[in-house]
Amino acid sequence: MKTTISYFLTALLLVFTACSKSNDNEPEEVGDGGYVSGTYWPYAIGNQWNLVNTDDTEDTYQYLIHKSLTHEGKTYFQFKPLGIDADVELNDGFREENGVFISLHGATSQMGINTSAGTATYINTNLKVGEIWKEEVSLQISGHASGTITHFNEGRILEKAANATINGKTYKDVLKSELKKTLHNSITGHTQKIVYETWLAKGIGIIYEKTTYNDSDSESYGLVSYTVK
């Protein structure tokens, strides 16, 4: 099973709703931060992507967009947390702006420790293959503790492929990206490195992902079915 929750929060496998479809038809426009024509990952409530571990078919993983939220006047879409059926209050989400996918780390307050909100680039589909972007985002910690959680991000496009085959299915117009993330907690001094490799098929969304932790352990998942409104 996945050992950590990545930027994309996930849920257990659910039944497709009758009003959804799983084909190449274009999804409807859903407004700010969501689906736009030509997107590589259609964001709309109810969309879901079901994946399976490439080494263990019993290990499934799902992205289900179950709600939207607003931060500084902008709409973000939230993936349902792993293994939780009830509606939960989280402050994280994702949006797309002109081909750039942005993650929101919502503000939190627990046991007298407060962490500020912040946004970070996840994938920039506008870049050329091999072109690198870098970003540093610091979240402030206050209350019973004082410090920062800093995200050092470095991303690039690995390949723009005409097609790619995952679990026996071929997808067209595939963008393969990599995000190298280093997280540092100034209070504990702990540093963690995570590398995300994500493949997106235009108009469909995620078809493959590989996550590597601290340059050693890794796990990969491939798409088996999807529902896009």
Describe the structure.
- The structure is a single chain.
- The protein is mostly beta strands.
- The chain has a single domain, classed as YmcC-like fold (Beta Barrel), CATH 2.40.360.
- The protein has no helices and 14 strands.
- The strands form two sheets. The chain has an eleven-stranded antiparallel β-sheet with strand order 3-2-1-14-13-12-11-10-9-7-6, with no helix packed on it. A three-stranded antiparallel β-sheet has the order 4-5-8, with no helix packed on it.
- A hairpin with a 3-residue loop joins β12 and β13.
- It comes from Sphingobacterium paucimobilis HER1398.
What are the SSEs and their pairings?
Blueprint: E1 48-53, E2 60-71, E3 74-79, E4 93-97, E5 100-105, E6 108-110, E7 113-115, E8 118-124, E9 132-143, E10 147-166, E11 169-185, E12 191-201, E13 205-213, E14 217-227
Antiparallel strand pairs: 1-2, 1-14, 2-3, 4-5, 5-8, 6-7, 7-9, 9-10, 10-11, 11-12, 12-13, 13-14
Signal peptide: 1-20
Keywords: Signal
Protein name: Lipoprotein
